[in-house]
Amino acid sequence: MKITQAHDTIKCDYMGIKLTIARHNNDAFKRKFRALLKPHTDEFENDTMNDDVADIITAESLAGTVLVGFESFMVGDDQYDYSVENAESLMRDDEDCREFVMEKSRDLKNFLMEEKASVAGKPQQSLSGVSTTEAQIG
Asked: Considering only CA atoms, which of 2, 10, 27, 1 is closest in space to residue 129?
């Protein structure tokens, strides 16, 4: 039985850039994470993995699976359009943005749709999420 309906993605504003974020731990993320982790399984299981390697695996796993889009933006004279490669670079090089994406993607209420729940003997009540509300930072 499933009572929750959720959006697949949300749009969030990060430092003036609209990001499209999918829910964390989705199937595509899990597959990509496992594939990237595989060469480092022993280090991971023995808790000896270098933090930089763990950050790279996380960043590359998020790109294209959780961070699934963004508006084109400029840094200096360079324009960046969405691509998985550019998303990987953003997730690797901007730790604050990576943390923002992970935080937003893990917060279920960001993805919940309007739904109804009924409790025996009580009238139905409305449960609201913030699924289509754009989060603001900056």
From this structure: 10
Contacts of 17 (CB under 8 A, 6+ apart): 70, 71, 73
How far is the C-alpha of 63 from the C-alpha of 93, rounded, in Å?
A: 12
How far out from the chain centre does Cα 39 lie? 24
The pair of three-digit structure tokens given for residue 69, joined into one six-digit string: 């889009």
The tens digit of pLDDT for each residue in 45-70 reads 888 889 999 999 999 999 999 999 99
**Residues 6 or more apart in contact with residue 19 via CB below 8 angstroms:** 11, 12, 13, 67, 69, 70, 100, 101
**Could you tell me the CA-to-CA distances from 65 to 26, 31, 114 in Å, in that order?**
8, 10, 25
Could you give the CA distance from residue 102 to residue 123 in angstroms, rounded to a whole number? 36
Domain residue ranges of the chain, discontinuous segments joined by +: 9-127
Per-residue pLDDT tens digits for 99-121: 999 999 999 888 886 544 444 44
Q: Return all residues near 32 (Cβ < 8 A) that are at least 6 apart.
A: 60, 61, 64, 65
